[in-house]
Design goal:
disordered C terminus, 12 strands, ABC transporter transmembrane region fold, alpha/beta, Rossmann fold, binds adenosine-5'-diphosphate, four-stranded antiparallel β-sheet
């Protein structure tokens, strides 16, 4: 199924506001608190702006009249106003803290859920580090944006407007002097926005690339050490982090430029107003109190003006983070539930059938030959079919089509006569079990790893079938933690757990991708014997590389050049098909079997 965006296609020329508006569904539930908080902050700011007016009253009134009681009263007013401002800002912070961590958690949960539903083709295409960084750094940026810049762009905007009006009312000539820098400051902001948005996007993408390299080196540490590749790996890391550093420096330079303009021009204007104001007070055209009020208002506006630079920068980063978040969320998940959710009793008459199946990977270059080309294959009910072919012939791809990890390009696959695309995912997964060559164990107990939601009673039977009795000798038996955060198991042990996982739900159909590849000869013989019993009453498709695995199956299909070129028993093909004989002979274990 095609997805809409890949990591290499960032949207160009987006509108910051429109991008940020996409956050609304998440912000909606906390909107009341957020608006209340903004209102409280505006109130606090306006109280701050009343302080200069009290100063004016003090200078022109009690101070000019040399009235100490009046001065004390003024001081009391100032103290109360300051206290009210501080308390309201504290209240604002309390209002937003909890709801915003809720927003972040919701967005993260949605992202995680969505990632689970996205098709394998999506995960093939997206580097895991890009997904990781979107789920962590980007969401943190968004929470910070909602907590701070979003409110303060509004609050500071209102404060600046109210402050300028107060100044103009005090004295409109001085007010105009202060307003002169407004035009160049605004032009700088617009230019800055554009440039900073590009730099922010580059930086956040580079964090994703860096995360990918770190993740790969941690997961592949054995290969890196075994091949002495740590130097080249470190070089790759240094190159990427050097690039990120360059981008961060570019961001810092842009921020320094805008701050330079935003801080310097208003300071110069304040200086000019101070000189002009002093001259006019000396000439008796202006009261000293008015000049004090005017200048303290101008100084009170310094923080709202200075902060615009980094508030815009944080908003740009948040817009980029939103864009990156929704690039993943907009990818189309697997179509879920065609057909009913419950399992219908289906007569087991048809088995597994591939009808004229053609498959091409979604990201394959156009015009390239399909990996699988008009495959017709019938695995009869209860039959086990081995799938043999040279490396790269498409065996893994063919098996991945049955549980719908990939969707067929054309043709159809049926289970007992029912098209797999007509079944719900749930029904399909309950009828087909898979075990892959690279068994993955999650950081959980053996029990959870094998059951994966299946019935508890089946555990012992499945472990028995897979000859995985070794788990009882683990420190906590089936409750031992395994996987990354637990005990490390050997390749053979992991394969046996994966087999147990495959057979635990008593599936009608089994798809096994070379399930015995990591087993030693003795264990292999034991698992084979047990598998034989399981295979007796399931319909199975087994990718096989060695004759010992092939011999578990009733018949063999040979995959070559994207087509099924022969179907027959092992011995028939061995005698009649030179390619098959060659494939089987290439394996030393195969020779052992062939001589039998
Ligand atoms: P086999 O299991 O027989 O070794 P595969 O099914 O793994 O073969 O691969 C068949 C072909 O499909 C190979 O040429 C491989 O390069 C290609 N291929 C495998 N996985 C992908 C993928 N996720 N995206 C694109 N091409 C792929």
């Amino acid at each position: 199924m095609p997805t809409t965006l890949s990591p290499s296609e960032p949207a160009q020329d987006r509108s910051t506001v429109r991008t940020l508006l996409r956050l609304w569904p998440y912000v909606r539930p906390v909107r009341v608190r957020l608006f209340t908080a903004a209102f409280v902050a505006i109130l606090a700011s306006c109280i701050g702006l009343a302080i200069p007016l009290v100063l004016k009253w003090m200078v022109d009134g009690p101070i000019a009249d040399r009235d100490p009681a009046g001065v004390w009263l003024g001081a009391l007013y100032l103290l109360l106003l300051g206290l009210a401002e501080a308390l309201l800002f504290g209240f604002r912070r309390w209002l937003v803290a909890r709801p915003l961590s809720h927003v972040e958690a919701e967005m993260r949960a949605d992202l995680y859920g969505h990632l689970q539903r996205l098709p394998v083709a999506f995960h093939d295409r997206w580097p895991s580090g890009q997904l990781l960084s979107r789920g962590t750094t980007d969401l943190m940026l968004l929470r910070m944006f909602l907590a701070f810049p979003l409110t303060f762009l509004l609050v500071n905007g209102v404060t600046i407007v109210v402050g300028v009006i107060i100044m103009l009312v005090q004295d409109w000539t001085l007010g105009l002097v202060i307003l002169v820098p407004a035009v160049p400051v605004m032009v700088t902001c617009v230019v800055f926005e554009k440039k900073y948005s590009r730099a922010a996007r580059a930086a956040q993408d580079q964090v994703g690339d860096l995360t990918t390299v770190v993740e790969e080196s941690v997961l592949g540490i054995r290969v890196i050490k075994g091949f002495g590749r740590h130097r080249s790996q470190a070089r790759a890391f240094r190159a990427l982090s050097g690039r990120l550093r360059g981008t961060e420096l570019r961001k810092a330079r842009l921020l320094a430029t805008i701050l330079g303009v935003i801080v310097t021009l208003p300071e110069v204007a304040i200086g000019a107003a101070l000189v002009l104001g002093c001259v006019r007070v000396a000439d008796g055209e202006l009261s000293a109190g008015t000049l004090v009020a005017f200048l303290s208002t101008a100084l009170a506006l310094r923080w709202p003006v200075d902060s615009i630079g980094f508030l815009l920068a944080m908003s740009q980063e948040a817009a980029t983070a939103t864009e990156r978040y929704f690039e993943v969320m907009d990818a189309v998940p697997e179509s879920g539930a065609a057909g009913g959710g419950s399992r219908r009793p289906v007569p087991r008459v048809e088995g597994l059938r591939f009808e004229n199946v053609t498959f091409r990977y979604p990201d394959a270059p156009p015009g390239s030959p399909p990996v699988l080309d008009r495959i017709d294959l019938h695995v009869r009910p209860g039959e086990s079919m081995a799938l043999v072919g040279a490396t790269g012939s498409g065996k893994t791809t063919l098996t991945a089509l049955v549980p719908r990890l990939h969707e067929v390009t054309s043709g159809r696959i049926t289970l007992d006569g029912v098209d797999i695309t007509a079944m719900s995912r749930k029904e399909l997964r309950s009828r087909v079990a898979v075990a892959f060559e690279e068994p993955t164990l999650f950081s959980a107990t053996v029990r959870e790893n094998v059951l994966m939601g299946a019935d508890e009673d089946e555990l012992e039977r499945a472990l028995g079938v897979a000859q995985a009795d070794f788990v009882h000798a683990l420190p906590d038996g089936v409750d031992t933690q395994v996987g990354e955060q637990g005990l490390s198991l050997s390749g053979g042990q992991r394969q046996r757990l994966a087999l147990a996982r495959a057979v635990v739900g008593r599936p009608d159909f089994l798809v096994l991708d070379d399930p015995l590849s990591a087993l030693d000869v003795h264990t292999e013989a034991a698992v084979e014997a047990a598998l034989r019993r399981v295979l007796a009453d399931t319909t199975a498709l087994i990718v096989a590389h060695r004759p010992s695995t092939v011999l578990l199956a009733d018949r063999v299909a040979l995959l070559s050049g994207g087509r099924i070129t022969a179907v027959g028993t092992h011995h028939e093909l061995l005698r009649g098909n030179p390619e098959y004989a060659h494939l089987m002979a290439a394996d030393p274990a195969g020779e052992r079997e062939v001589k039998r």
